[in-house]
Amino acid sequence: MRLVMNEPVERTDHPYARRWWALLVLCLSLLIIVMANTALTVAAPDMTRDLGLSSADLQWVIDGYTVPYAALMLLLGAIGDKYSRRGALVLGLVVFGGGAVAGYLADSSTAVIAARAVMGVGAALIMPATLSLLAATFPRAERAKAITLWTATAGLAIAAGPVVAGALLRDHGWSSTFLINVPIAAVAIIGALVLVPPSKAGHHDRIDCVGGLLSVIWTGSLIYMIIEGPHFGWGTKAVTAAVVAGVGLVAFVAWELRHPRPILDVRRFTNRRFAGSNLAVALFFLAVFGAFYYLTQHLQFVLGYDALETGVRMLPLAGAVFVGSALTGWLTPRVGMKYTVTAGMVGGTTALALLTRVDVSSTYTDFLAPLIILGLAIGLALSPCTDAIMGAFPESELGVGGAVNDTSLELGGSLGIAILGSLLATSYGDHLTDATAGSKLPASALATQDSVGAGYAVAQGIGDKAHQLAAQAAQTSDAQQAAQLKQQATQLASGARQMADAVGSSFSDAVAHTSLVGAVILGIGTVLVAVLLPRREAAVAKAPEEERELVDSAAG
């Protein structure tokens, strides 16, 4: 099969007949790599108990996926452009599936972290390939609609992960959340080979390996710093990573400005539409991932829903993403992306602002409106941004374009969890200290609280001790001893209730405080994006060497 590809303008040749079936395969591939993270948040408690994970172990089980994923996307996107985008997708699915099998078989924290890292490498191949193949397969007139469906799939995956994991965990262990990826990856591989057309860049220029290596160094170091600093303190590791990230970024920009065929032409960031779109993607996922991080905890720990019930209650967000995507598909061609993106970001800011009203008496209905508004906002804003980012690249660099979009997404998400997650933990600890001041709870219990789950675990432990003493009192024949045991049991039961109430109110207050900070960050970002995005939909200028016609030939 041979498809003629020009720079991103309207095509005159016939589009690929099975392109919508191909999009289904691309969306399925996207679904599993996004679900790999959201499902893990639900499986984490069972995994922690089974493997005896420390807080550091658990953090790296989650983030062992993120570092290679974010660091390798740009380089692997360029390699896919040169050799085969469909080949990159299939190889990524094979690697991802292999990592999932390894995760299913893992019996130690080291093995799980290694498996997650392998899955991250697979995701770094898959993610840019899905967008580059989408852009290469669809004519320009249909590309925005296809990207809208791609974005809606990402929104669905955010909410579907906890639902699928929760359903599995009712009858199976945490390892089943790894294994579920394997059959989906297998179906996607077959679908890619049958339905997705082969695609690669028409030129045969050498890959900018130095630029690619520098991108891996600075991006990987930045993500590592974002993870290490807030969670484990700003010690030598975090500071070193920050220095390496800064030096690596400067070196990367300097090299790319001088290279005749850079892996990423950084001059594109001087274009307001391109820069504003990347900023909007990063800020949106900072808010979304940060909010998702603490909302799932609130639903599970404070409101007492199990994993499946929590996932089901996140589904309105996914449904709202689809509605928002449909709206932006109709609105953007009429009013322009500046207004739909700005409206989406205002909606996201509003959703976070509504969460500042959360308190210990809040019920699920208090979260419903923010979830729906946030979903609508995602659908409104992200599709036009992704379309603008992909439209800034010639057909020969679609993999790089997808990688830039996805790197902005991943950096934003990592920052959201790091910044808002760290703020949440600090605020929760401060409120818990105030709420338990002057109490008669054991000092050891109060000193060990670093999360809402741990706080409730201590309350449960105190309550269990109260039940044990009450049972002993009922069995003893010594009236005086029985009275003493009953008194101790009563005191402990009161302490357990006090501890549970303090944990719930402290975490609710922390959610409100963190949401306020998130709303301020996203609100300031909304103003910046509104200023950056031009009113007119001007195309991004192409370098002279990019203005030639490029032929998309069969991949190997």
TrEMBL record:
Residue ranges occupied by any Major facilitator superfamily (MFS) profile domain in the UniProt entry: 22-537
GO biological process, one term: response to antibiotic
Entry keyword set: Antibiotic resistance, Cell membrane, Membrane, Transmembrane, Transmembrane helix, Transport
Record flagged with keyword S-adenosyl-L-methionine: no
UniProt GO MF annotations: transmembrane transporter activity
Compartments in which it is found: Cell membrane
Organism per entry: Streptomyces cellostaticus
Residue intervals passing through the bilayer: 20-40, 60-80, 87-106, 112-135, 147-168, 174-195, 207-227, 239-257, 278-295, 315-332, 367-390, 510-533
The protein, known as: MFS transporter
Coiled-coil segments: none
Membrane topology: Multi-pass membrane protein
Pfam families: MFS_1
Primary residence: membrane
Keyword Ion transport tagged: no
PROSITE patterns according to UniProt: MFS (PS50850)
One CC-aspect GO term: plasma membrane
Domain of life per record: Bacteria
